[in-house]
Amino acid sequence: MRREDRFRESIDRNWSVSEVGEGSVTPSSVGLRLAIPAADGAGYHNAQISDYYRQSGGKPRLNFQWRPPLRMTVTARAEVGGGTVDRLRGTAGFGFWNHPFSPDSRRLPRLPRAIWFFFGSPPNNMQLAYGVPGSGWKAATIDATHPRALLLAPLALPAVLLMRLPGLYRRLWQPIQRTLRIGEYALNVNLLAEAHTYQVEWRAGSTRFAVDGAPVFETPFAPQGAAGFVAWLDNQYAVVTPQGQFGFGVMPVERPQTLILEHVIIESM
Asked: Which of 140, 162, 218, 255 would bridge with 184, disulfide CB 3.0–4.6 Å?
């Protein structure tokens, strides 16, 4: 079976396609192409596949099917027309999450749960792990839905104010980071320029990330609830820092850009 036929079959059987604005999802001989053309920052553009929507009573309903222990293996690369991957704009990635919010979704946001490989270009600044940049190409976990995390809610405002003092930031944020099960590791963004095989081993009490079979990050943090698979490319940015900086928006895409998925495998361990 040709690669494009295999991806068409997987889309029909397993995945939902989301094409917002000028985003497009196209099976081809090189793999599944998630693409956005050059565009100004006036609108949101997203090319995405996911498996967390199921039809119920004629309407799509969230239905998360993945729980540990499992292994996800994705071979992927990015292309930027007439430029190098440092010209990639917006966010991109693949892995599992609970779809807490989306610019094209009209529902109340929820607390996030995710385990994935995530890219964000400046001004994206999700500075969630102490000592790890808020933008770039990362292996990451978070579970703000854990009961211990919910207990922190009444302390959020005073903690944010105190963490604006450099001397208190590390002392206060690291225990909060552990409670939110945040683990992050910065990868070299140039990996995206060529096809590499990315792997997540999601266990009940830990997560292991590997690239081309070599472990790059292992953390005792892992989401405790169910999540859905997603792979996407968009022109969004988000700013979320422990010091209380928050913001969301869209940015211009200077050159056509594509995330190519050469294969996707999810299996029980």
From this structure: 140
